C-alpha cells in the first residue's frame, strides 16, 4: 500500500485542510459547469429557487394525453440555470468539519404537504448536524399520499428519527461518544404530540 500523502481530491470532491478544520467542496466542478453553460458573465442570484416556484409536467402531459412520458420544459431549464447562478456566488463553499466538533447531534425536519401537484405526494426534508457540522441531509417525495399536513409532518419526523438511530450507532462504532437524547426540531406541534403520546398515536391511526 502506497502513502499518497494528504487527501486533496476524492470522487470529485476537493478537500482543503487547516490546523483546525477540513472543508469539502466542488469548486472545480462548479466553475466547469459555469463555463459549459456560458454563464461567466451572468449576474449571481441570492436564492437557488424563486419563492413558491412549482415545477410540474402538467402542460406536457395534457398535450400528450399520458403521464408516462416525462420531458423537461423551458421552466425546468430556467430553474437549472438559476441554481448555477446561485452557486456562482460562492463556488468554493462547502461542508466544514471542525476539530472542535462535539458528540452533540441535532436534527431539523420538515414536510411540504402536497408538494407535487401531479402526484399529490408530499416531500420529506431533513438535515442533521454533528457538533455544528452538517453530516446528513435529504429531500425526497414520500411514497404514500398524506391526507393532511400533520400526517406529512409525522412521516417526515419518522424518517428523520430512523436516520438518527443509524447515525448514533455509526458514530458510537467509530469511538465517538454521542450525547443523548438528541434534539429534533419539528415545525408541527401536532406531529410532536403524536410522537410523544402513545394514546394520541392510536387515535391518529384511526383517523388516517
TrEMBL record:
It comes from the Eukaryota. This is Uncharacterized mitochondrial protein AtMg00810-like. The gene is LOC107812945.
Amino acid at each position: 500500500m502506497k502513502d499518497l500523502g494528504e487527501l486533496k481530491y476524492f470522487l470529485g470532491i476537493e478537500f482543503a485542510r487547516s490546523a483546525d478544520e477540513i472543508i469539502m467542496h466542488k469548486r472545480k466542478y462548479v466553475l466547469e459547469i459555469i463555463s459549459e453553460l456560458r454563464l461567466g458573465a451572468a449576474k449571481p442570484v441570492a436564492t437557488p429557487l424563486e419563492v413558491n416556484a412549482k415545477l410540474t409536467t402538467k402542460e406536457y402531459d395534457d398535450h400528450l394525453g399520458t403521464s408516462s412520458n416525462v420531458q423537461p420544459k423551458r421552466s425546468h431549464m430556467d430553474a437549472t440555470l438559476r441554481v448555477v447562478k446561485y452557486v456562482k456566488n460562492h463556488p468554493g463553499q462547502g461542508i466544514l468539519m471542525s476539530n472542535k466538533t462535539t458528540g452533540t447531534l441535532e436534527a431539523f425536519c420538515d414536510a411540504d404537504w402536497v408538494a407535487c401537484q401531479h402526484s399529490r405526494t408530499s416531500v420529506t426534508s431533513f438535515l442533521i448536524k454533528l457538533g455544528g457540522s452538517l453530516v446528513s441531509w435529504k429531500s425526497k417525495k414520500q411514497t404514500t399520499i398524506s391526507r393532511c399536513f400533520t400526517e406529512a409532518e409525522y412521516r417526515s419526523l419518522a424518517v428523520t428519527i430512523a436516520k438518527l438511530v443509524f447515525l448514533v450507532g455509526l458514530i458510537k462504532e467509530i469511538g465517538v461518544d454521542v450525547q443523548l437524547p438528541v434534539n429534533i426540531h419539528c415545525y408541527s406541534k401536532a406531529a410532536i404530540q403524536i410522537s410523544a403520546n402513545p394514546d394520541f398515536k392510536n387515535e391518529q391511526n384511526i383517523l388516517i
